Amino acid sequence: MPAERQKLQLLRCSLDLANKPEDYDARLNFSVQLFRSGHQKQGLQHMTALVREFPTHLTAIFNLGVMLQKLLRFSEAASVYARVLKINPSYVDAWINMAGICSKFGYNDKSRAAWKRVLILQPDNEMAKHMFLALSNSQPTIQCEAQNICSPSSQMPISMIEGIFDEYAANFDDHLEQELDYRTPKQLISLLQTNEVKRFGLDLGCGTGLSGMEIRPYVEHLVGSDISEKMLRQASQKNTYDQLWHLDNEHALNRSASLGLPWDMVTAVDVFPYTGDLDTIFNLVASLLVPKGSFLFSVEAVGLCAKPYRLLPTGRYAHSLSYLRDRLPQYKFSIEKIKAAPIRRHRDGLIDGYLVHCKKR
Ligand SMILES: C[S@@+](CC[C@H](N)C(=O)[O-])C[C@H]1O[C@@H](n2cnc3c(N)ncnc32)[C@H](O)[C@@H]1O
Predict the structure, then answer these.
(1) Pocket test for ligand 1, best of 222, 226, 249, 250 (most atoms within 8 A of CB)
(2) Phi and psi dihedrals of 255, rounded to 5?
(3) Is residue 265 a contact partner of residue 191, using CB atoms and an 8 Å limit?
(4) How far is the CA of 352 from the centre of ligand 1 (A)?
(5) What is the pLDDT of residue 145?
(6) How much of the chain, in percent, has pLDDT values that exceed 70?
(7) What pLDDT is recorded for position 144?
(8) What is the pTM of this model?
């Protein structure tokens, strides 16, 4: 929410609270608005006091958990969610947040159990289906159970991608550059091995524009597309792109087809880990690139694997080298270079990946 609207909301809640200082709802809304508008410490203090006075009011307890989680106080947040679930075991959002915290600490079994509770309460919850499958995949004995509940997935649900990155947008650049040692855009663009400037470039899943900053010197006119509006808002502040499209990858490619735009370069930097089956994308990119046009992308690498891709416990996909080598030529790409390289950090290790440069024949 833009800062001005946030201030206005806070003012409204303060007035409401002044009129009804003992009212539970007025105090709840005031604490939430205070926290959201940057006064996190005070928001947390108000919410803690509210929970002390109304120890069984679930919305306040849950929101206290959310605040602690946002402040990265994960263990405390988990205890607060456990308290919510003790009072009401059907509180879905508490299960969802609990599942996320368990995954973060590598407690995959606990996370899987929490997602299963979500699925029992909301059998159509797409994120729960995806994560339940992802966390079941590495354990053959429970794979069958998962497959009875959910059908195999070839792409993370678009609404889930949007939710993850909308939430992440404000901290994305700092987190990736300072903590995750993210150098994939630079490394990928170095595969071009030329200073030639191309005319039209499309950066799929452009995010906040970290990829665009590296690509910009190589194209005259650069379009970025992404499904997360908040990531795009960050990108627009960098003034790196000539246009930004709020679309998922397939719709962005279809849109450029309907506009008759031929691309000289298409990039997708750290975007394909959210899509397992890349055939549709490869086909669309091939149909839109000019002859000798460049397609640059990165994927996470799966170790030895007979299948084209694997859904990992993180909910992302890793692709096999044989899939890339087999499919790209089928879509009339010549492979210029595939380089094994770390993509970014994850917990204590590095995530292995492949950086790919191919050209339309
Ligand atoms: C890890 S970020 C990378 C952002 C940028 N390319 C960079 O290198 O900094 C992944 C981005 O891809 C976007 N994304 C993932 N899958 C997508 C899809 N199917 N359609 C559109 N955007 C997608 C996400 O919203 C997110 O902004």
Answers:
(1) 226
(2) -65, -45
(3) no
(4) 18
(5) 64
(6) 95
(7) 60
(8) 0.90
